[in-house]
Specification:
Layout lengths: L13 H15 L3 E5 L15 H6 L7 E5 L3 E5 L4 H7 L6 E4 L5 H8 L4 E5 L6 H10 L4 E5 L3 H5 L12 E2 L2 H4 L3 H15 L3 E4 L2 H8 L1 E2 L12 E5 L4 E4 L7 H7 L3 E4 L4 H6 L5 E3 L6 H10 L3 E3 L5 H5 L3 H25 L9 H13 L6 E2 L4 E4 L23 E6 L1 E3 L2 E2 L2 E6 L5 H18 L2 E3 L4 H13 L10 E3 L8 E6 L12 E4 L2 E4 L3 E4 L2 E7 L11 E6 L17 H18 L5 H10 L4
Parallel strand pairs: 1-5, 3-4, 5-6, 8-13, 11-12, 13-14
Antiparallel strand pairs: 1-2, 2-3, 7-9, 8-10, 10-11, 15-18, 16-17, 17-20, 18-19, 21-28, 22-23, 24-27, 25-26, 27-28
Helix pairs in contact: 4-5, 14-15, 14-19, 16-17
Length: 599
């Protein structure tokens, strides 16, 4: 099993660790200390050695910040984690704070009326984050960068990861790393930059056509790079990660150096150096400033090319989704044969991973499977443990969100499954969520629109019933890379224009705390839309669906759907039958034929 079920949160360990941190703060002259869920690469997932927020507070979510003062410790989490954080931290010592309703700056201002110094690790914050925080603070509160105080008190902190690096085939990438380096270097020259500093792990993986194993579930390597305007790259990475094949793949244009050589290399750069203020560590800016090397702000040059997948990448990920869809359907055929009261959430996760492993091509799961039944389904990022494991009962809904990592693609699919017979409220809510998912799937839209322009369409059916969900409608997805990939999103805060080749999730939901949850998710890819006869609008975009797994018709109130919505669902189910059916075993094929009957 890739997934384990050990409970990792330890609320009882938080208070003594908090006391140790406060003693370290007093010694350092800090009235406060900021502990983010972040590493030096600003990835969503972190290695065990960088899980400082979880070590201190017990909170294990993928986003959060703890602001520790002498008499308060606020744990800032967004809507995905408002229930989870209350279960994972000691409420007598840590106070959950709803973000973004309350932001760290105003909170610090209220809790430090006499001012003071708030410390932070410059490796773990970006210039944008610190600028935003500073702008919200009164002049009496000063931010101070310094060595990480958590590291000074974490006696058994794990060592940094040294996972091996593997070449990723050029035929899947659609371009060699030499071609990518040459193209990006030309862009630097045109912009007047001599070099760009790259700190995002998935940017390194994309640029050099390599994959790694430093981060659980994300096949990317940890390291730093400098891309020069000549097309040469200096890669700062633990040499133990590189075998002969990896070194041969990188070749002579990629100069290898140890991580400790990164600072001196920054000192020696010719100005101007391009930095991404959204992702580069503050430490890099401080180092360049100290060496007198001028920098300019600009987007990581890998971000947009990485987001706009090549035809080869899209073809590869289509294949991965068909293989993965067949595995999920094999699971669903088995699941529907199990009587209520006979399965636990762990049984579900275990069986689904077995079905994916049976493909013979599964390299990892793309994130820990979410299998939340009944009230656990109301936790959008629920992770089942031996302590929380629940038996599926008659009438339960099961939110099953999972994915696989294959050499040719990364998958992410959510289906809400029925145990026994559905309730009236559950069916109505499910149908509204489905309507939102169909709205995005059917959408045509002008070029230049961003995720914020589309997000409301998925929510409108829910809004009509005074319902909503506290997460974005969709995130970007890589190709055998990170399952959460920026900068594209379907979200009310996303300003990045959607472009052909961008892969996104389409996953509206609804969560009734203490009762049930619903989410339906397919992956989609942006493409040029076919022209409409008689139309006079400029060229438009639409979405191609990548995920083909039936949606449970027993949970649909058919009379709530419009004729176009019914037609879309029937066409989708026919496509599931045609594309996935030939890949299935006999029993699963019979299940598929039944599950995809016209509504």
């Amino acid at each position: 099993m890739f997934q384990s079920f050990t409970e990792t949160a330890r609320p009882e360990a938080g208070p003594p660790r908090l006391a140790l941190l406060r003693r370290a703060m007093a010694k350092a002259g800090c009235a406060g200390w900021l502990v983010p869920r972040a590493d030096a690469h600003q990835g969503e997932y972190v290695a065990p050695c960088d899980a400082r927020l979880a070590w201190l507070s017990g909170f294990t979510g993928s986003a959060g910040l703890c602001a520790v003062l002498d008499d308060a410790a606020g744990v800032f989490v967004d809507g995905r984690y408002k229930v989870q954080v209350r279960a994972q931290v000691d409420p007598d010592h840590f106070t959950p704070v709803d973000f973004p309703e309350t932001r760290p700056g105003p909170w610090l201002a209220r809790h430090l009326p006499e001012g003071g110094v708030v410390g932070f690790d410059p490796w773990l914050f970006t210039p944008e984050q610190i600028d935003d925080l500073t702008a919200a603070l009164p002049e009496t509160i000063r931010l101070m960068a310094g060595p990480n105080l958590i590291d000074t008190i974490w006696a058994d902190r794990p060592a940094p990861p040294t996972g091996p690096i593997r070449p990723w085939p050029d035929e899947l990438a659609g371009a060699s790393h030499a071609e990518k380096r040459t193209r990006l270097a030309e862009g630097l020259r045109k912009a007047g930059a001599r070099a760009a500093v790259i700190t995002l792990c998935d940017s390194l993986a994309w640029l050099l056509n390599i994959r790694g194993s430093d981060i659980p579930r994300n096949p990317v390597p940890q390291g730093f790079a400098i891309l020069h305007d000549t097309g040469r790259v200096a890669l700062f990475i633990d040499p133990a990660k590189l075998d002969r094949a990896a070194r041969a793949h990188l070749g002579g244009e990629v100069m290898l150096a140890a991580p400790e050589d990164f600072g001196p290399a920054l000192d020696a750069l010719s100005a101007p150096v391009r930095l991404d203020r959204k992702s580069v560590p503050v430490w890099v800016v401080q180092r360049l400033d100290a060496a007198g090397v001028a920098h300019v702000w600009g987007e990581d040059p890998c971000v947009m090319p990485k987001a706009q997948k090549t035809p080869a990448e899209i073809n590869a990920t289509r294949s991965a989704h068909l293989r993965d869809g067949a595995a999920v359907c094999e699971f669903l055929a088995w699941f529907d044969d199990q009587p209520p009261g006979t399965l636990t959430e762990i049984d579900v996760v275990t069986r689904l991973e077995e079905c994916r492993r049976a493909t013979g091509q599964l390299l990892d799961i793309s994130f820990d499977t979410i299998a939340g039944s009944g009230p656990n389904g109301a936790l959008p990022h629920y992770r089942v443990s031996e302590a929380s494991n629940r038996t599926l009962q008659e009438g339960d809904l099961l939110v099953l969100d999972s994915g696989g990592q294959y050499l040719d693609g990364t998958t992410d699919i959510t289906r809400t499954l029925l145990v026994g017979h559905p309730g009236k409220a559950e069916r109505a809510a499910f149908t509204r969520v489905l309507q939102g998912m169909i709205a995005i799937s059917r959408l045509r839209f002008p070029k230049g629109l961003a995720g914020r322009d589309l997000d409301a369409l998925a929510r409108y059916p829910l809004w009509l019933a005074d319902m909503d969900y506290g997460h974005g409608t969709g995130h970007g997805v890589g190709v055998y890379a990170c399952v959460h990939e920026g900068p594209q999103r379907l979200s009310r805060i996303s300003e990045v224009a959607l472009c052909p080749g961008m892969i996104l999730s389409n996953e509206p939901g609804y969560y009734r705390e203490g009762a049930f949850g619903i989410r339906i998710e397919n992956l989609i890819v942006v493409r040029q839309a076919a022209p409409v006869a008689g139309g006079d609008a400029a060229a438009q975009l639409d979405f191609e669906t990548l995920t083909y797994v039936p949606i449970d018709r027993r949970l649909i109130v058919a009379d709530m759907l419009s004729t176009p919505e019914r037609d879309w669902l029937d066409r989708y189910h026919a496509a599931c039958r045609d594309k996935i059916g030939p890949l299935l075993s006999g029993p699963a094929r019979l299940w598929m034929d039944h599950a995809t009957q016209p509504l």
